[in-house]
Amino acid sequence: MNWQRASTDEKKNERKEAIYKAAFTLFKQKGYENVSFNGIAVEAGFTKSNMYRYFSSREEIFLNVFAVLFEQWFEDCCKQLQQLEQNESIPVFAQTWVETLMLHPKFLDLTPYLFVSLEKNSSYEQLHEFKSLAKGLLYQITVEICRIYPEFCTEKAFKFLNLSHAACTNYWAATFQSDSLKKIYQQEEFQDLKPDFKQDLMSSVEIIIHGLKAS
Predict the structure, then answer these.
(1) What's the mean per-residue pLDDT of the chain?
(2) Would the pLDDT of 7 be above 60?
């Protein structure tokens, strides 16, 4: 595809969407470290020089893609949490939390690569912009968590977000299995080791909430 230079905001947004789609496809297929700025350009049908009109680096593309997916999940998460009652049962909270995440598989797909991108490759300016966005959105989620569990302070709510995020990242990454590993998990002797994203994460969320309540 031979993209001509965009002359309107609508055209520029179309170009960015094409880049986002190409980047997401490559990040999911190859992993973050194996995707280059030039590779994204080729996938999107751009020349490298045309790409620089929209983004300065692979890291900037990744953070922009992730930010869009993050905001989509955030909006859905807040809506679901607002429907929960004060002192909601922990199993109901855990199920709501996990099912909301599962509605956003693209967000989950990129989550394991987030800190690789942020901590190793991004500039201070890119980090600051993304962290400011994330902090603002996550703070609004902590407000809802503290409403549901009034004994939680903001610090405990953020601790929940950090711990549940770590569990979510690990469990989601475990869902991507090679053919050999799938065969292993089909054997009865390894059934106890077979990952189950929904159930494993729900159990972890329940344990985290109980632990924070007790601390």
Answers:
(1) 91
(2) no
The set of residues, in sequence order, having a beta carbon less than 8 Å from that of 213 and lying 6+ positions away, is 149, 151, 152
Task: Return d(Cα 71, Cα 130) in angstroms, integer.
Answer: 12
Query: pTM score > 0.90 for this model?
Result: no
In this structure, what token pair is assigned to residue 40?
Answer: 């994204």
Structure tokens at 123: 């500039």
What pLDDT is recorded for position 8? 63
Tell how many helices (H) and how many strands (E) occur in the chain: 11, 0
Q: Which residues contact 45 (CB under 8 A, 6 or more apart)?
A: 1, 2, 3, 18, 22
CA-based radius of gyration for the chain: 20
Can you read off the two tokens belonging to residue 186? Answer: 């089909």
Sequential DSSP letters for 115-156:
HHHHHHH--HHHHHHHHHHHHHHHHHHHHHHHHHSTT--HHH
Q: Report the alpha-carbon distance of residue 57 to residue 78 in Å, rounded.
A: 32
Distance between CA atoms of residues 43 and 46, nearest Å? 8
96-153 pLDDT, tens digit per residue, is 999 999 999 999 999 988 877 777 778 888 888 888 999 999 999 999 999 999 999 9
3-state secondary structure of 85: coil
Q: Extract long-range pairs of 29-32: CB within 8 Å, 24+ residues apart.
A: 31/113, 32/62, 32/113, 32/116, 32/117
CB 42 within 8 A of CB 20: no
